[in-house]
Design goal:
alpha/beta; Cholesterol Oxidase, domain 2; five-stranded parallel β-sheet; FAD/NAD(P)-binding domain; 25 strands; seven-stranded antiparallel β-sheet
């Protein structure tokens, strides 16, 4: 390929969508990915994801700085470093968010990002053919979205228990009504994982206008004056570069995009000077506004007659599940993480849900990333989905190969504490309802003695866990802390956009993969519009 029109940095959830749509629009694209191609079988078998959460071959394996709000723990922060990015190692949940999320963005000055304005990009991204309302759902996009193929009886018990506890049933939380209890939806490609590499990139496979460069870790953006014209990257120990005829688009996510900006001279001026980076543009907000979902995992043991993933993941029960997967495309190996979800409000007077309760028919040994316990059980995670706590991501030094310092601020906002306390109370109400009560052997964690606000706060400091939804570090807007404008162009420079979860001004109500893909869709559409003049 000659000089491409666009260089897309990061082949993750958003980057693959951006690259695909630009190529389909007739543009020439170079797509850079720091990791390898997605050849590991574990990526493609949904239930095999747990080892990927610590696998340096496909994972950045970031960790937080030790902070008081996590009792000094360094919390593991998995991020995909492979084609498909985090969509190649996540739990595959497809949750768009609440319409109020996007209307809130528009009210903050992000023109063009209201729910009605982003809905067409959600619809064009997906292929959902299981009865969704066509006003809200799409059926001819590259991203295949499905309901769970196999649902364990314990999940049905949870759904019934939630209804008995007062949560209405919602047949499609991505449709007309998010609030209530419903069964999970997943991104798939048949029985396999439906990452953006296996959906969007597959849709333009073999197109001569797309060049995919793997093993290419971005080192610095190239500027001529204040215009970004390309990027240098490290590949196989050598420094290389690629230039763009039109624009460079950062799609590295909430950690890598601000880090690359900072080491390239765009960020808080004082900090950049302290670490030896020449300041090209003093843009205070780069790396700030870090938001993430931090959850309380409530675990129950259940009677031995109840089948959970704890048993199905071990010999001898796993053997017939393997056969089901390869013969029929169903069974336990098609499982993701969460099989049913409740969206609800922590208190009266709220306009939309601010709590997510995620049900898993399994109990991980640690805070959600390791092996499963031997005895049967289930876990319900209470998540304040509109968290107000804010941390930051900062380059440690001028070396592009050093990881950034990621400093979270989980549950430092008092309202977030109120919401998680309410969420745990709602989980306990659901577990008291007959469908779950009759099979539960009791609350294993946090345990019945953890009741007061202070006790719950301490439990969250010591045992709470990230839900892996970092956003906000290159936030969109027009205020002094904004990094990109409503068309995702970086303030103060030319030829450079950011299109990933880092541009979200606030968290969405639910898992963030679907809205990140939507951002990629909308970004590509705006770029093609702007190219036409």
């Amino acid at each position: 390929m000659n000089v491409p029109d666009y260089v897309v940095v990061g082949a993750g959830s958003a980057g693959c969508a951006v690259a695909c749509r630009l190529v389909q629009g007739g543009a020439r694209v170079a797509l850079l990915e720091a990791g390898p191609r997605d050849t590991s079988w574990r990526i493609h078998v949904p239930a095999a994801l747990r080892p990927l959460l610590n696998d340096p071959a496909v994972n950045w394996n970031y960790k937080t700085e030790p902070v008081e709000s996590t009792a000094g723990r360094q919390v593991s922060l998995p991020r995909g470093k492979v084609l498909g990015g985090s969509s190649s190692i996540n739990g595959m949940l497809y949750v768009r968010g609440n319409p109020a999320d996007f209307d809130g963005w528009a009210q903050r000055g992000c023109r063009g990002w209201s729910y009605q304005e982003v809905l067409p990009y959600f619809r064009s991204s997906e292929n959902y053919k299981q009865g969704g309302d066509t006003e809200f759902r799409g059926d001819d996009g590259p991203l295949e979205v499905e309901d769970y193929r196999t649902v364990l009886p314990l999940t049905h018990r949870f759904v019934r228990a939630a209804q008995e506890a007062g949560h209405p049933f919602t047949p499609d939380y991505n449709g007309a009504q998010q609030e209530g209890v419903g069964y999970s939806q997943m991104t798939r490609r048949g029985r396999f994982r439906g990452s953006t590499a296996q959906t969007y990139l597959r849709a333009v496979k073999g197109n001569p206008n797309l060049e995919i460069i793997t093993g290419a870790r971005g080192s610095r953006l190239i500027f001529v004056g204040r215009k970004c014209v390309g990027i240098t990257y490290r590949q196989d120990g050598s420094e290389k570069e690629v230039r763009a005829a039109k624009e460079v688009v950062l799609c590295g996510g909430a950690y890598n995009s601000p880090h690359l900006l900072q080491i390239s001279g765009i960020g808080p001026g004082n900090h950049l000077r302290e670490i030896g980076v020449d300041v090209l543009h003093d843009l205070t907000g780069v790396g700030g506004n870090l938001a993430d979902h931090w959850g309380a995992r409530i675990k129950h043991n259940v009677r031995a007659s109840e089948i959970t993933m704890n048993q199905l993941s071990r010999l001898p029960r796993v053997v017939p599940e393997i056969a089901k997967f390869f013969l029929f495309g169903n069974g336990a190996l098609t499982f993701g993480v969460t099989s049913a979800i409740v969206f609800c409000r922590s208190r009266e007077g709220l306009a939309s849900p601010d709590v997510q309760l995620s049900f898993t028919p399994a109990t991980p040994i640690d805070t959600g990333q390791g092996a499963l316990e031997k005895d049967p059980g289930f876990q319900i995670t209470a998540i304040p989905v509109r968290a107000e706590s804010r941390g930051h991501v900062m380059a440690r030094n001028a070396d592009p190969m050093d990881d950034p310092a990621i400093t979270p601020a989980y549950l430092t906002d008092e309202n977030d504490i109120d919401v998680v306390v309410s969420g745990i109370e709602k989980v306990r109400e659901i577990c008291k309802a007959a469908p779950l009560k009759e099979v539960s052997l009791g609350e294993l964690a946090p345990g019945p003695d953890v009741r007061t606000r202070d006790e719950i706060r301490q439990f969250m400091r010591e045992h709470g866990g990230t839900i892996h939804h970092p956003v906000g570090t290159c936030k969109m807007g027009e205020d002094s802390a904004a990094v990109v404008d409503h068309r995702l162009c970086v303030h103060g420079v030319e030829g450079l956009r950011v299109a990933d979860a880092s541009i979200m001004p606030t968290l969405t109500t639910g898992n963030t993969n679907a809205p990140t893909i939507m951002i990629g869709e909308k970004a590509a559409a705006m770029m093609l519009e702007d190219a036409k003049g």
